[in-house]
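I keep forgetting this: the sequence line spells out the residues, with the fold written below as integer tokens. I include a record here:
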Amino acid sequence: IFNRSAVVCAESRKTIMKKRTAVIDGDMVVWRSAFASEQEIKWDDDIWTLQTDMNEMKSIVDETIDYIQTQTDTDDYQMVFSDSRNFRYDIFPEYKANRKDKRKPLGIKAVKEWCYKKRNGYHKHNLEADDVIGMMCCGKKNMVAVSGDKDFGTLNCEWFNFLKAETNYTTKEEADYNHLVQTLSGDSVDGFSGASGIGPKTAMKLLDKHGATWRTVVDAYESKGQNEEEALLNARLSYILRSLSEYNEKEGEIRLWTPPTKK
């Protein structure tokens, strides 16, 4: 017997399964859009001013979203932004302190507010955009993380680097390895230094030679006159949340990363 409703339901399920969503690093998109729309104006030999065009900013955001959706073959998108403050400042007050004196582009607050109203803008209390994206995308086949930030290599998901037009498929094992690399080498952009004198290449050599384990990380720190407490701080600063179980949304509290225990 032909059951039309059953066919419709089956087709609906098929459509839902195929739907792909690009989860976009809104901080990076609006920052770049705002800077790109700035213009210097020379009035005379001694007077210059800087202006921006809100419509141009909006247009750049829209073009970026269209480009991302085309490249990732996604049906929908979500723009994710960082909260004004996040948990990393609580465990390390100097987090991103090196950015305090950097000028923000003109109009960035206005274009961000527009994204919230018109372009699926979203954030979660006490989290950076990276964390929200990680929780939404890790282990999900129909979600694509979108950012130009190299830190996204620590997430086990499909990641589209829209600045390089590169798509990466990172396994959990690879993500864990990359997290240990970051723990050892630190992140000068975010203001934490890792183990003294160890950069990404040296970190990978150590992990490849001695094993990609927490013991290798601690040994490397101790060889530099540092301790496990410093290693753990760097690991927690560099770890991007991957699961809703790591976040208590009601309280805005985080379950901080801890070293895996041997079975």
